[in-house]
Specification:
Elements: E1 4-11, H1 28-36, E2 38-44, H2 45-54, H3 67-72, E3 74-78, E4 90-93, H4 97-106, E5 111-115, H5 119-126, E6 132-138, E7 158-165, E8 171-177
Parallel strand pairs: 1-5, 1-6, 2-3, 2-5, 3-4
Antiparallel strand pairs: 6-8, 7-8
Protein name: Dihydrofolate reductase
Domain Bacterial bifunctional deaminase-reductase C-terminal: 3-162
Pfam family, one: RibD_C
C-alpha cells in the first residue's frame, strides 16, 4: 500500500499560510529525496490554486527549482468546486474524499505527497489515512494567526519517527498519527 505523507512548512509561532519566509532555510537535499520517493501529489483546492499559479511559470530546465517534477507529477485535487483544472496532469477527486483517497492509497505506485495542512488533512488523519506528517519548522516568527481556521477544534496525537536538523536552523520533524484512544 502507498504511503500518504503530509509535508507542511511552519514557523515557530505556528503560521503555515505564507511560505515566503522558507527560502533561506530550505533543505534541497531532503526535498529532493521526498519528491523522488513520490509519484503523486494530493492537494486541497487552496493549495492547488496556489501551486497552479506558480509552478507552471517556473523554469523546468533548472533542476534546482523542482518545476519539472511539480509540473509533470500526477496531481489529485480534493474539491467540490473545481471542475476543469488547467494545470498539467491534474485530476479532481470525485465522490467521498475518504473513499477516494483510500482507493488511491491502495493503487500501485510510490508515496503520495500532500502539502499544506487544512480541512483535507484533518479529515484524512481522522480517517486513519495519513501515514506521516513532516513539519518543516522554520526558525522565524511570522507574527500572523497561529492557528488557521480549519484547524480550530481539531485534535490529534502523534508519535515522533525522525528529526533532521539543517545547519540553517530548519528542523524537519516526522511524525506518525497515533490511533484514536
Amino acid at each position: 500500500m502507498r504511503k500518504l505523507i503530509n509535508s507542511t512548512y511552519i514557523t515557530l509561532d505556528g503560521v503555515i499560510e505564507n511560505p515566503m519566509w522558507t527560502m533561506p532555510y530550505f533543505d534541497a537535499e531532503f526535498a529532493e529525496s521526498q519528491t523522488s520517493n513520490a509519484d503523486a501529489l494530493l492537494m486541497g483546492r487552496e493549495t492547488y490554486d496556489g501551486f497552479a499559479a506558480v509552478w507552471p511559470t517556473m523554469d523546468e530546465s533548472d533542476p534546482s527549482t523542482g518545476a519539472a517534477y511539480f509540473n509533470s507529477v500526477k496531481k489529485y485535487v480534493a474539491s467540490t468546486t473545481l471542475t476543469d483544472p488547467s494545470w498539467n496532469n491534474t485530476e479532481v477527486l470525485e465522490g467521498d474524499l475518504v473513499e477516494a483517497v483510500a482507493k488511491l492509497k491502495a493503487s500501485e505506485g510510490k508515496d503520495i505527497l500532500q502539502y499544506g495542512f487544512g480541512t483535507v488533512t484533518t479529515a484524512l488523519i481522522e480517517a486513519g489515512l495519513v501515514d506521516e506528517v513532516r513539519l518543516w519548522i522554520h526558525p522565524v516568527i511570522e507574527g500572523g494567526d497561529s492557528v488557521s481556521a480549519p484547524l480550530k477544534g481539531f485534535k490529534a496525537s502523534f508519535e515522533l519517527l525522525d528529526t533532521k536538523i539543517n545547519p540553517t536552523g530548519l528542523i524537519i520533524a516526522t511524525y506518525r498519527p497515533k490511533a484514536a484512544e
